[in-house]
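Exercise 7.
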Amino acid sequence: MAGVKEIREDQGQLVFGLDIGTRSIVGTVGYLNGKQFHVMAQRSREHETRAMLDGQIHDIHQVGETIAAVRRQLEEDLHCRLTEVCIAAAGRVLRTVTTKAELAFESEKEITDEDIYTLETIGVERAYEEFQKINDTDLKFYCVGYTAMRYYMNGYQIGNLAGHKAKTIEADLIATFLPDDVVDGLYKAVDIAGLHVANLTLEPIAAIQIAIPEKFRMLNMALVDVGAGTSDISITKEGTITAYGMIPVAGDSLTDIIVQHCLVDFETAEQIKRSAGEMETIEYADIMGLPQTITSEEVMEMLSDAVQDMTHQVADCIRQLNGDKAVSAVFVVGGGGIIEGYTEALARDLGIARERVAIRGKEVMQNIVFECEDAQMDSLMVTPIGICLSYYEQSNNFIFVEFNRDRMKLYDNGRMSVADAAMQAQFTNEDLFPKRGKALTYTVNGKSRMARGQQGEAAVIRVNGDPADLHTQIHSGDVIEVVASTVGEPGKLELGQLPELSERLHVTVNGSRIELPKSALVNGLIEHEFYEIQENDDIQLQNCYTVSQLARFLDVPLGGDIRVNDTPAQADTLVYEDFTVRWDMNAAQENDGVSFADLPEADAEEIAEYKQTHSQEKEVAVLANDMPVILKGKKAYVFVDVFDYLDFDLKDSRGRKIVTKLNDRAADFMEPLQDGDVIEIYWEESEKLT
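Solution. The predicted structure, written as tokens, is:
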């Protein structure tokens, strides 16, 4: 563990474990050598006040000072500085979730420790998601420990995945959760003592490391860690830990009875309880300062009902965790369980043989080597040493960082990144990644199209003031700043940018081949190429010109004898790709079609005036063939303009003459139009067409 100097070259890495109990704090420092854990130093110190109740810290500063005192004693013993520590949380308000995790590979591969770690991490994350769904409180919970109960390889159960080849691996996993205030209090107290948490586990997980070796876990057994404030319980079966539980009743509840009965302070009552069974008569002074005596038998009788109630609750919890049935045997550790009559009462409540419930201490420490003098090798040391060993089993840790000026706690899986912090802070993915502007949607010839918006800028990320990205790893104490990503410009497109309008229409006019730009109607109106398409615009591409439009584009007068593909035509005859158009610009000649020359008013001066005003814009509303039409895009309009808005086939003459009327009178093509004009267009000797 970083921060601890080596004492001997062959000893290995030192681990500092703290059992932060309700009555006392026990510190253990040692190292693992092969299968044996060597205890180099042990120190314990009781709280001067009731700074902890039921396994939870109530006075963080007082607990922090007591931890600091234990730390200083151990540093003096070892002549080195301790900066990192392993701790365990008591199971008050403990919640557990059992889940399954899966990990699939593209092809069969040899399973590594890294793969197993990834699988278990997936399980922890899934357990947290499942727990959040059933969390019916306002409390925020954190995972403080987990156990992989069973592993599967390609669908078959297996004891150890490492080294096998598989395409899929799975794990049944049990994860334990505690409220934020429990975890946060532990971290703050350790911080006050000048220490950094290297690993956090749960007390029953730590205790089982020592009390029930793996070779015994095939049996259906229970471990009960009876502390001062809580009794933590774990169940084993079929080679694994299957459940964890807790009841908030333990040794202190017995001490409180002595306080009331003997009229003494808590410290004196604790001494009376510990002396009971060791001496026949116990002397003490009550709160009035008067000397008093009590026999051990009287103490046991006084506590008998409370012990019965405690074991009854433990037995009920064991049955609940074990599928409503008793276990085959129970190991008891912790100071609260050594009270006379406890194991007998628990066996009776469970309905199992008396010898199947036993205190476990020195007899389960065959792999523990005590290198310190006057080492305590009893049931009280099982959990403290187990906390040290948990460091080698798994690394459940939390780190504290500052995210956009808010302090937050993160579950540290060893690979924490800015993305993990952003997720914990509920900083949305939308604000992390560039946002596209709103897309522009429109239709072309009835088919939907879209112009995508522009990408915005990605979130600006800094860690400790330095440029970073979402994958930058973070550590405890880091200051993370994330400025939300921006929205890009909305989608934009000019009419002329449509690929169809980049093409040209080729026609031959009076012997000269010319190129004409293709045009389009937008919502029924002709628009120029620089028109900016709007949301939901309906665009109809035009692949032809009328003869009159062709003349206007060329800025030449339209004469007589109009012919399209050598066929007599009119001014409104449609001209398509590769058509040939001819007319006599110098003289007007009669033909079966219609030309500007047919109208007396259509002289050169009028045409020139029309062209002069053509580029100015205004709107005129008329009624054409009983349909409302709004003419747009010009300053002035003449009769012939209305053909751009009507579905009227000028090629369908079949020898008939066209009839044009304006306000119920004959009209010519160059006659000006005004708001409210009524227009009629139809073939002679036929019904009106619309």
